[in-house]
Amino acid sequence: MTHARQQHAACDGFGSDVWIGAGTVLTAAEAAAAFDVGARYAVTPGVCDGATESSLLGLPVLAGAWTPTEVITAMAVGASAV
């Protein structure tokens, strides 16, 4: 079983009571892969293509930020929490 299929099985196996997400999502491709295997949210270390794409895919995004500008930018790309 491939790693992606294992992740998908883990996401499906818990039902709606457990949210399994993807961490350190940096790129749009990583966001799409996380979405494809059933991740229910994405965590990013900052504002990056992964945060933007995750938001566009409808995943809640928990984005890291340090400065007020980074917080504003994260919210602008659709982060659910910063």
CATH architecture descriptor: Alpha-Beta Barrel
Structural class: mainly alpha
Helix tally equals: 4
Task: Give a short account of the largest sheet.
Answer: 2 strands, parallel
Portion in strands: 5-15%
**Fold-level CATH name:** TIM Barrel
Task: Output the strand order for the largest sheet.
Answer: 1-2
Question: Helicity, in percent?
Answer: 40-55%
Sum up the structure in keywords.
82 residues; mainly alpha; TIM Barrel; two-stranded parallel sheet; 4 helices; 45% helix
Describe the structure.
This protein has 82 residues and is mainly alpha-helical. It has one domain (3-76): Aldolase class I (TIM Barrel). The chain contains 4 helices and 2 strands. The chain has helices at residues 3-13, 28-36, 49-56, 68-76; strands spanning 42-44, 61-63. The chain has a two-stranded parallel sheet. Helix 2 packs parallel to helix 3 (49-56). It is elongated.
Short note summarizing the structure:
By secondary structure, this protein is mainly α. It is built from four helices and two strands, in the order H-H-E-H-E-H.
In terms of topology, how is this protein built?
Layout: H1 3-13, H2 28-36, E1 42-44, H3 49-56, E2 61-63, H4 68-76
Helix pairs in contact: 2-3
